[in-house]
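If you are new to this repository, start here. Below is one unmodified record pulled from the training split, so you can see the exact layout before writing a loader.
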Amino acid sequence: GKCLRAASARYQTTIFALFLLAIASSLLLTSASRPPRAVTGILSGGGRLASRGAASWMRAASGSSSARALADGAVAHGELLPAELVARVPHREKLVLSFVLAFLEANALPAQLLVNGGYVRDLLLGSVPDDLDLSLCLRECDPAVTVATVMHGLPGFALERPELNVSSVTITTILSDASKDKNVDTAKAHLVVGSPPERIEVDFMPTIGEETYDEFNRVPERDVRGTPEQDALRRDLTIGAMLLHVFQPRGSGPSGGGGAAAPEAAAEALQWRLLDFYGGLADLQRRVLRSPYPAGADASLVRASVLRYAEERELARKMGLLPSDGAAGSPARSDSPAPAGAAGEGAEALQVVWWIKVLRDDPLRVLRALRFSAKLGFQLHSSFWLAVPFALSSLQSKVAGSRKKDELVKIARAGREPLLTFLDLSFGFPLPNATCGGGGGAPPP
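And here is the target side for that same chain:
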């Protein structure tokens, strides 16, 4: 248990230092007219704050068309979004998507256009979506076609096709230093859209597939021609791993002519197919935060690929995730049901081990998960607390301070109540200890 107690102490020290920054940010960002709560209220009322946050979110969302669509089962994997959800997408963003699809068609590029990440989550939750992030699935394209070559073609295409209502495209970044380190081809573009003109920032990246590791290098080589399902598995939370495949119905694209109104009509005619490979919809309904994981995979093989270093295997043994001989062991019991198609001990093992991988790949995801739990009032799956110790050292020493600051400023901007709930989540639940069987569970309400 000594190793686990040290890990727990490091966790609380790290979060406490970051929380002090968040408190300072909150004092600047929240209204000065609201009286501050007493420190005793902060320390004793956090659990109730989580419940109130969840209740307020449910009241706000329960009457929305999105909530009704989720409850009625009108939204499902592989199905088109109902019209009431599509209507929530701003028209100017539909113009952007229609423009990109017209470019792909004009250049005979058989690429899938996918909306990813928080945009899909917010749309399904009934919020106004923002931060348009797009993925291009280039598997069927010539190997010379990359995100960079597509980006280089967009500015000229806007000049050639002014009728598409995108007056200019400015590529601000291609292959950032971070992307080079991860061997990922990404880009950021500013598109001036519509009349009156409005600038929209859009991130582009490929769908990323399998990762392969060199024995002497912890930075993986990434397949930038992955499938949408492989790309979704890389995400940190199932509710952010859903994708929208956007396409034009046959014969309705802007390239078919039809006068000045054709681009507007083509944008509104877009169809949106939901891709939910890892149970994100079910988790939205259950209000649970967990990582995607490869259901059906062999748990022992996944464990061997994830716990690749001696120190990780030793920590797993101390936490009861591996027996003393290092063979496949049983993880702590999960408090939330596994998605359809996964059952029993194998699913529980996969959930824990895969979340270890998710947090280790980017330790900042520890703070992201806490932030989303506090902001949305969602419960963290118990496997999160089993996975956290594997990411603590890197969170402290390898994640840039500016990234930690940005994450804490986001929770501060969410308001005082989510910020206090964040504190309760960070300090109100001990990390699992090997001496009590590697237990775990969500923080008590």
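Two things worth knowing about this chain: Confidence is low (pLDDT under 50) at residues 22-62, 256-261, 326-344, 434-445. The first strand starts at residue 112 and ends at 116.
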